[in-house]
């Protein structure tokens, strides 16, 4: 899936969404609640995400990792009257609680993260919601945001929609995002391609940046 437009690395930023133990590790909250199959797809993309990070580092493209963090005493969530998507499935997760191993980045992400990379702590699905991400992107003159990570139909999708609303160009290498639901993953990629950005693959992204 080649990109029709060539990309200037000076305009580009890379976002790695929620590649954390709670979402991706078999011993994390999601894996324990739903079984190993629930984290199979997120784990499969780890080498591809690392390749994208390596590409960004080689081309001096700034990298942001998001880290979802939840508070046990979050009264704003407790005030909700409509059950959450997890509660409707009869599941209560202690997902990515502040200060826990569950909330930490995967060891594979820690191994490739460099001092120049940023970590954006977020408390809701979108990486833009009440965080400093937009300000940091503007300060680094980022116009094109390459989005990778998990979960395609929730946190990745929410982030991409917010990026589009802020007039960033969005590029998604398809083999670098993952979901526990294949149908939701495919539907979200189709929606991104239709409305919010461009879906490509790692080879297409590399060609667009290297030329």
UniProtKB/TrEMBL annotation:
Query: Which InterPro entries would you find in this protein's record?
Result: Isochorismatase-like_dom, Isochorismatase-like_hydrls, Isochorismatase-like_sf
Tell whether Hydrolase is among the UniProt keywords.
yes
Give residue ranges for domain Isochorismatase-like. 14-202
**What SUPFAM superfamilies does the record tag this protein with?**
Isochorismatase-like hydrolases (SSF52499)
Q: Which GO terms describe its molecular function?
A: hydrolase activity
Key words of the record = Hydrolase
Q: What is this protein called?
A: Cysteine hydrolase
Say which species the protein is native to: Dactylosporangium roseum
């Amino acid at each position: 899936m080649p990109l029709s437009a060539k990309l200037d690395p000076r305009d580009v930023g890379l976002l790695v969404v929620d590649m954390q133990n709670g979402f991706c590790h078999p011993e994390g909250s999601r894996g324990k609640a739903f079984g190993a199959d629930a984290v199979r797809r997120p784990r499969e993309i780890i080498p591809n995400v690392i390749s994208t990070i390596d590409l960004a580092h080689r081309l001096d493209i700034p990298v942001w990792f998001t880290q979802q963090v939840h508070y046990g005493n979050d009264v704003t969530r407790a005030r909700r009257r409509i059950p959450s998507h997890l509660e409707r499935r009869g599941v209560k997760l202690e997902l990515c609680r502040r200060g826990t191993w569950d909330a930490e980045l995967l060891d594979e992400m820690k191994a490739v993260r460099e001092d120049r990379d940023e970590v954006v702590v977020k408390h809701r699905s979108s990486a833009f919601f009440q965080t400093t991400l937009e300000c940091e992107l503007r300060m680094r003159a980022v116009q094109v945001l390459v989005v990778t990570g998990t979960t395609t139909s929730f946190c990745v999708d929410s982030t991409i929609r917010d990026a589009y609303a802020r007039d960033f160009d969005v590029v998604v290498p398809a083999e670098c995002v993952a979901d526990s639901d294949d149908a939701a993953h495919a539907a979200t990629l189709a929606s991104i391609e239709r409305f919010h950005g461009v879906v490509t693959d790692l080879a297409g992204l590399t060609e667009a940046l290297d030329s």
